[in-house]
Specification:
2 copies of one chain form a homodimer.
Chain A (H helix, E strand, L loop, with lengths): L2 H5 L15 E5 L9 E3 L5 E7 L7 E8 L5 E6 L1 E3 L5 E6 L5 E11 L1 H15 L3 H16 L6 H15 L5 H8 L2 H9 L4 E5 L3 E5 L7 E6 L7 E3 L3 E3 L3 H5 L2 H6 L4 E4 L47 H13 L3 E6 L2 E2 L4 H5 L15 E3 L2 E3 L3 E2 L6 H17 L4 E5 L6 H14 L4 E5 L4 H9 L4 E2 L9 H11 L2 H6 L2 E2 L9 H5 L1 H15 L2 E5 L32 H19 L9 E4 L6 E8 L10 E8 L6 E6 L2 H4 L12 E5 L5 E4 L2 E6 L6 E8 L2
Parallel strand pairs in A: 2-10, 11-14, 11-24, 14-15, 15-20, 20-21, 21-22, 23-24
Antiparallel strand pairs in A: 1-3, 3-7, 4-5, 4-8, 6-7, 8-9, 8-10, 12-13, 16-19, 17-18, 25-26, 26-27, 27-32, 28-31, 29-30, 29-32
Helix pairs in contact in A: 2-3, 3-4, 4-5, 4-6, 17-18
Chain lengths: 681, 681
């Protein structure tokens, strides 16, 4: 797509006048269209609107998708939601990247209006001839509309004739004219009068990885680090890390996320367990960036060279993995910027550079940039730094604390990268209040960390999954991480291995992107006292791991299995397609995800049920009541009989399930099912 | 205001870029600014926004009101709502009619940021000199800002000096510099950095009567109608009606609403109690408009002439009342339009004109207009009809069933009238689903009937009053009618006189506009069986009334008293200023309304508490817990002591109330208090 085409961002142009058939409250629309809704190619986007008219006549609505070049791509019928709410919903499926847009059309449905009248009057014997003749005229009009294919045209014309010709009874004529076949044709080719149009709203489509991914986080220096009783620690390097990629790729992860690999400062370097003073052998936090060896555009010399980095990226790519790099915009006191550009920091009245503070706490190892001092200079430098890494194959950045930097900086950066490198994705690591998190997403971050780790009870999980499936979820694109190097919740600290199993299942199926921090396989669940992060945190020391331990083997296999299931099931690679099903148990959640054939990323209809106990301590039993309609499954022949074939992808067993599913889930094993749904037989 | 100025409707122009201090979710904004928020002159309009910034530094926000000519009228500080929500609220007060607009400014608050740091560091003895010197520099900067008056300038400069000069302890210096006096100056003249601006959103201001009024509804033919045993009924006329105006004006009503006065059709005329066949002496429904004597631009000959009408209007105006006329856009089969413009109706295939239907029901006395057949012709004719009545002094129309006519028709009409006759007001009588009711208001109806009559329990009333005070209430402008000629709810049918007392108190205080249908004084509460409207409905017969009966005298006096109280209390003439106070009783509501001096329509601070039992059968006792802050009253000297003087405007008695108010309300009398609030002493 040309840069000029990309620049033609559709903007809402609200019409001054209300339409003949009013359309209001169109969604997904953010701040009146100031920022676009979001999707990836072949993602089904729910479009909603309030549509109504004067009087009692029937209306219809159509969702219209407009391609990046401004031409209508597709139109699909919308359907009313609920009774008497005047709310309509439809779905559109863009199929390529770019700046798309959508609108809603509303129209009078004279055949629907007539049918409502006819179905009352004809059986009552009121005005029969008049009603049938009126219907015939409407069907004839429908059949002669522009664009109706000849077969549909024939069916509608026949319906018109059936209403008025021959000698059948009025009731039989009506029935013949409104057969299922005729209704199906009308669904695709309705007679539309008083066509009215909403404003056109923007929809940005970026590459699939923005929505879908399985991330694996490592500290490269730990991969291959060794402790020798005599010589002490030998750091892992980019070259030794490379040897660990096979194991990660074998588990099915497709994004390898590296914490910062830049030179680490020495002044006020933190020691083990965040100690204020480091000892000589402490490697320091990779988030204290910058030393005499360079800053954000350099590689910590002990890790290797750009050649080593290129080799790592190349090997990851061979294995089907992208490399994501941390972007932590803060400096150690030894960062080259501190001497080259002291004006980029805050100088206090006493002439010293201000370190980070949260009074009375001081973080003397970190100098925050002051973007307001030289916005242009800092912007150009950071863009240059990003381009260094982009040139070395990094197309994903995990942005550390974006909510502590000015939003206009990010918006400008994201806009410029969208023009020059639309495949570059930025993940926002902002654990803060909702308006900031929402707005970071609105201005262009492609994906967001979120509160997943703190949603643990059934009520919390059900509410959260439903939230993620709504408009804000679609803009923020959640990445679900059960733990990170900064996060080890009480649930994970106290739930044993079962907690790690439960949260892996939930993260892998709760959203299309999930992430695992290395060591998860070993159930590393001991916290530094008084904190909610790991003891002996890898941020401050080397942490080689032995995954051949029994726990490691079991968990490694489970993570691999989860990624295989995700790969096999397009329904699990979509966000907005969730249905929560009620269960009788206070700790067991049941939800399903479904894509129909026409909206499936790989053209294959798919439906998966997740039935999961959230209790790492006790076995749970109960009943889940399935909403068959949401599963696309017909009701059973008789109540109590099976309605579907349920294949448990984890255990390999297959059941026949009805609307009531009895379950027994034991945290001693895997207390959940991930079930592939198929019709009976 | 010139017509050109009116045409310069402010439109939102969302900036492409996020501001330095982000501002989102500004309100009141409807459909992204497609339609304006609403107010009347001297009405305080709550402005809300989400304002936040990166990091932990403090922010502030200002609500800016822009006059119809595009110049800033006033700016007022906003304040944060709740804790950690990033929501801000402020109020603006336009003072004249016209197309105003508003926006929100957000800014960094370096003094607030410094103060937060100083109040932690100074007591802890950290960096004292540096902190104080930094503060002095900020205060000096604040004092030298453009537009700061000299006295404020002096106070800020003194604060700067106090921080760094002399020999006082650091804690004392800090205290001196941030005295209440200094904080007050900073409230009005904050040091604002990184000033950021939201889009500008429209705010339409129309005359006071759109929001505030006391309506009284009559069927003119009943006023002075007489039955003579020998000659039968003699109709009331516009001339006899005129004699009844004194009584209505004495009660304090200021809008006299006349049901239609046009010629009434004879074909399929309805008889008493909606009988399908009328007898010769039945006068017919005034809503079946049109006969050989004329249509919507004519007066039913038996009522009188335009001269008589002019006399009625003139007398009403002398008495301080405006005349509101019904606009019921439907025709009897005898309407002149039926023969002159058959194309304005729907012609069925058999050549007959379609009457109104709701199959299988037929309404053969009514021909609905088909606006789509000749939108231009019908529009011009109806505008002509309205101008006939406007020329005869009618500036308010009560529009019957606007939701059965196309919305573009109304929007065009309302737009054109706004240009030519901005004082003309239209009240929408649309009892239908919320989207239609909301949208009628958005496209320009000035006031709306609503669901008030069906909100009877404590929960319903509390929720409804709070709703009415919100954004939709401000656009719809509710008119609260306890009964109308179409509405007699079960509550009114079965609650006796007490129900009429209760609902009158609630309607008079629940919103700035209330309405009483003649006969309310006589507690006319008998319904036609199977319906929720009065038996022997005045729509189909003459209904002279004797208000000198004991009930009539009592209720007349009560209605008059309510209007007097409303006239004396500006707080009761505002909509958005409500606070609900909890009570211990399941049937008693307590709410207050308050205007501060600067936002009061008459420049006078005012606060009123309404304490009302909703139970027409039983005496209720309990406690109301007053939110003193919402009343603008300081807490009592000690718990349990009085905090305010409460003058009951209904009984004339005066109490001293604390935060807990014990009440005993008996439906045998008046089970409510309307209390004027004043500080003690």
């Amino acid at each position: 797509m040309s840069s000029a085409a990309r620049r033609r961002l559709p903007r809402p142009a609200p019409s001054a006048a209300i339409g003949r058939i009013p359309i209001v409250e169109v969604g997904p629309v953010f701040e009146g269209g100031r920022w676009p809704a979001r999707a990836v190619p072949r993602e089904s986007v729910p479009v909603t609107a309030t549509v109504f008219r004067e009087g009692h006549d029937r209306v219809g609505a159509t969702a219209v998708l407009v391609g990046p070049e401004g031409k209508v791509h597709s139109s699909r019928a919308m359907w009313p939601v609920g009774q008497g709410l005047d709310r309509w919903e439809g779905r559109v499926v863009p199929d390529a990247e770019g700046e798309w847009s959508f609108r809603v059309e509303a129209w009078a449905d004279p055949i629907g209006t007539w049918l409502h009248e006819a179905e009352i009057k004809i059986p009552a014997g009121i005005d029969e001839d008049l009603v049938l003749a009126t219907g015939a005229r409407l069907f004839a009009k429908a059949s002669s509309q522009v664009g109706v294919p000849s077969e549909a045209r024939r069916i509608l014309a026949a319906a018109a004739a059936a209403l008025v010709e021959g000698k059948a009874k009025a009731t039989d004529r009506l029935e013949a004219a409104v057969s299922t076949k005729v209704r199906d044709v009308l669904q695709d080719h309705p007679l539309r009068e008083h066509l009215s149009t909403s404003a056109t709203y923007p929809l940005r489509v970026v590459r699939e990885r923005a929505l879908v991914g399985a991330w694996y986080e490592v500290f490269p220096r730990s991969l291959g680090a060794e402790f020798h009783p005599k010589t002490g620690w030998r750091t892992g390097t980019l070259r030794t890390a490379l040897k660990h990629l096979d194991r990660i790729a074998e588990m099915g992860f497709d994004v390898l996320y590296l914490t910062p690999i830049h030179p680490i400062g020495t002044t006020f370097r933190k020691g083990r367990n965040n100690a204020l003073e480091a000892i000589a052998t402490d490697p320091g936090s990779p988030y204290a960036i910058g030393s005499a060896a360079g800053g954000h555009d350099a590689i910590e010399p002990s890790l290797g060279t750009f050649d080593d980095f290129d080799a790592l990226v190349a090997r990851a790519q061979e294995l089907g993995m992208e490399v994501a790099l941390d972007l932590a915009l803060q400096c150690s006191p030894n960062h080259p910027w501190v001497t080259e550009h002291p004006e980029w920091f805050t100088t206090r009245l006493d002439g010293t550079i201000a370190y980070a503070e949260n009074p009375p706490k001081k973080y003397q190892d970190i100098y925050p940039l002051n973007f307001d001092n030289d916005p242009e200079g800092i912007y150009c430098e950071i863009l240059r730094v990003l381009k260094v890494w982009m040139a070395h194959g990094v197309r994903i950045f995990r942005v550390d604390n974006p909510h502590t930097k000015p939003l206009p900086f990010w918006e400008r950066l994201l806009n410029e990268l969208r023009e020059s490198d639309p495949d570059v994705l930025l993940l926002a690591e902002a654990f803060t209040r909702p308006p900031m998190m929402h707005t970071l997403a609105l201005i262009g971050f492609h994906q967001s960390y979120n509160y997943f780790a703190w949603r643990n009870t059934k009520e919390e999980v059900e509410e959260y999954l439903a939230d993620l499936a709504g408009p804000w979820g679609s803009v923020m694109r959640p990445a679900l991480w059960p733990t990170t190097h900064d996060i080890l919740t009480p649930f994970m600290q106290w739930g044993g291995q079962a907690a790690f199993v439960i949260r892996a299942l939930l993260a892998a199926t709760g959203a299309p992107t999930w992430g695992i921090y290395s060591g998860y396989e070993l159930v590393e669940n001991v916290a530094r006292p008084g904190s909610e992060e790991q003891i002996d945190n890898e941020k401050y020391e080397f942490k080689p791991r032995d995954f051949t331990l029994e726990t490691g083997v079991f968990m490694t296999e489970l993570l691999g299995q989860l990624n295989s299931i995700r790969a096999a099931h397009p329904a699990l690679r979509r966000l907005r397609n969730i249905t929560i099903h009620p269960t009788s148990d206070a700790a067991t959640v049941c939800f399903s995800r479904r894509v129909e054939e026409w909206e499936s990323p790989d053209g294959k209809a798919d439906c998966v049920i997740v039935l999961l106990s959230l209790d790492p301590q006790h076995a749970r039993e109960g009943v889940a009541w399935l909403n068959l309609d949401a599963l696309g499954i017909a009701p059973p022949a008789e109540p109590g009989k099976p309605a579907l074939t349920a294949h448990d992808e984890l255990s390999g067993t297959t059941f026949e399930w009805g609307t009531e599913v009895f379950f027994s889930l034991d945290p001693a094993g895997i207390p959940g099912h991930i079930v592939s749904v198929a019709p009976l037989g």
